[in-house]
Fold this sequence. Notes:
By secondary structure, this protein is α+β, with helices and mostly antiparallel strands. It has helices spanning 3-8, 12-21, 23-41, 66-72, 92-95, 99-105, 121-127, 136-149, 171-183, 204-226, 228-261, 268-305, 326-345, 347-353; strands spanning 48-56, 109-111, 118-120, 184-188, 195-201, 309-313.
Amino acid sequence: MNVNDKKSAIDIKEIAKTMLARKKTYFKVWAVVFVLSCIWIFPQPRYYNCEVAIAPETAEASVGGGLASLASSFGVNIGNMSSSDAIFPELYPDLFESNEFLVDLLDIKVTTKKNDLTTDYYDYLMNHQKENVLLMPFIWTGEKVRKMFSTPEKPIKGKNGKRFDPFRLNKDVHEIIEQVATNIDCNYSKTTGVVTISVTDQDPVVCALLADSVKEHLQNFITEYRTKKARIDYEHYKQLAADAKCQYEKARQAYGRYSDAEMDVVLESYKSKQEDMENEMQLRYNVYTALNTRLEAALAKVQEKTPAFTTLKCASVPIKPAGPKRIVFVVSMLILSTIVTFCNMFRRELMEWF
């Protein structure tokens, strides 16, 4: 028998009659699947999504011109070839995967929609997350077993007063960091140059607060990086200018005291020393003036290096939840159960067909 004979052996009308004759089987399967799907999906906690969009200032506009824009549409970046920045917008999504950046987000203050909780993001994720009630026994058992076979570790404090050390994270903090990386997403569009930050959370107000705070944190992080060398130079010249001013004040006061004490003296030796002291005072003043000029230039350099961010889409409290899609899930399970039931009912015919 050839393939065409096998295909002609299946009678569509006969299959339809068999399905109608055994329709009670489908009704039973649908009823069971519907109940089980509802039992599983309805206790799942709702989650919300909030997005913010910013356009960062880059040096690409003056490098490459239209060629850079044309190349970016094909996924090729030639604008940063002559840029001195090590962290350009294409790397912002990678920045959201670093522990050093994510650890600072744990100190963000959040408030729930009902105003019944105000705490930091770490405590909120650690102690105030909703779970599916069907999974609670398994979660509780897992926690008990983990405590039996592991000793609790205190988190290590980081440098400069940071709450956690990104270099040495204990297991609890590491799990929270992974959850933060899952809840927060960053995307960069090469064609438009827009950075989009998306935050997912179970509370709509927390979701909006976190999206706005993450945007501010990203801006501060990039600003601190871009202006780091300029700020170091400014502090250096500030210290030199302060020392030069102190030296000038000492020379001026010494010259004034000597001039007052030797006012009536006409000896050439005293006049010569007075001129030397005056020249020393003038030299100190010139050094102070020059350093003060460099200090003003360094301050202007800090302002020049400070990037500008244009907010295209502000954070707002989401009204409707982003998921889970309960109706879609139940309908999908019913369709899947129908396909499985059909395949099981006509498995012999299908095996002959294929």
